[in-house]
Amino acid sequence: MQINFVGLVAAFAVFLGIWWGHVAVRKIEAISGRLWPPILGAILLGIIFEIFAARTESINLSAACGIIGMTLLWDAFEFYRQQKRVKNGHAPANPNNSRHAQILAEYPEATTIDLLKRSPRGREYSAEEVAAMKASVE
Amino acid sequence: MNWFGLQLCLVTCCIIGLGFVWVIRGERYLGYLWWPYTMGLGILLVIASLFLSNDWVSALLGVMGASLIWGSTELKEQAVRAELGWYPFNGEKLDPPFAEVIKKQRAPHL
Questions:
Q1: FRET partner for B69 with CA separation of 20 to 30 A, picked from A11, A89, B61, B76?
Q2: CA-to-CA distance for B78 and A92, rounded, in angstroms?
Q3: What is the structure's pLDDT at A95?
Q4: Residue A121 φ then ψ, to 5°
Q5: Each residue's pLDDT tens digit, B25-59
């Protein structure tokens, strides 16, 4: 029985691509003063991976590069979505980042608190409870 | 030209997109405590992919498996999002078998 590794390779590419993209987008968006350089960087890197996926003879490399490239192109869009989350208070703002400082000044929902850092409790939070969480930092 | 990676990445994009849907809906109606079952299913799919000689079938099983494993790590955070009011909250969830045991485990999150 021949073992076929292409599924395992694709699985690793998907999992690591999503995981590292998830972490990198949040970190880079929080420290980057401007949003377009990381967006452009992710698009360029994604295209390079796709070109490599199209040119390699190896089916495993083609699968891995195709998937990693696609997640990088998705990450480019996620930079924009992450900034939107910061504006809505769904992701914490970094007050040391001038772009985020401006968001904190202009968007009343924005906060430096990571509201997701808690375990589920099984009941909805009231608007007052969420407001109290946000007020606990100032 | 090798079209395998490019074609696979388009299908992968759709499968990951479906991941958003099942994590949001699954958490709303079933709850995050199902995470060991979705993770187990994902691991089984990845293992099964090793034994399929057809490259497309193997790759798709691997992608679906990995997407299920990732989604399992997202369920807990999605439960908090719903409790915070960012998504519709449903208090009547269908608990999985062994829910009490699962509650004592730390739900994975990356």
A1: A89
A2: 16
A3: 96
A4: -115, -5
A5: 999 999 999 999 999 999 999 999 999 999 999 99
ipTM of this predicted structure: 0.95
Residue A138 confidence (pLDDT) above 60: no
> What local confidence, expressed as pLDDT, does residue B9 receive?
97
A24 touches chain B (CB under 8 A): no
Nearest Cβ partner for A7 among B10, B62, B86: B62
Q: Does B100 touch chain A (CB under 8 A)?
A: no
* Residue A125 amino acid letter: Y
Q: How far, in Å, CA of A48 to CA of A55, rounded? A: 11
The residue in chain A having the minimum alpha-carbon distance to the alpha carbon of residue B52 is A4
Cβ neighbours, 10 Å, residue A132? 11
CB-based contact, A1 to chain B, within 8 Å: yes
CA distances from B68 to A58, B26, B40 (A): 26, 12, 9
Global pTM reads: 0.94
pLDDT at res. A1: 75
**CB < 8 Å to A48, chain B:** none
* CA B66 vs CA A14, B9, B16, B50: distances in Å: 6, 14, 9, 13
| Rounded distance between C-alpha atoms, residue B49 and residue B53, angstroms | 9
Determine what percent of chain B is predicted with pLDDT higher than 70. Answer: 100
- pLDDT given for residue A94 in this prediction: 97
A42 Rama class: left (phi>0) / alpha (psi -120 to 50) / beta? alpha
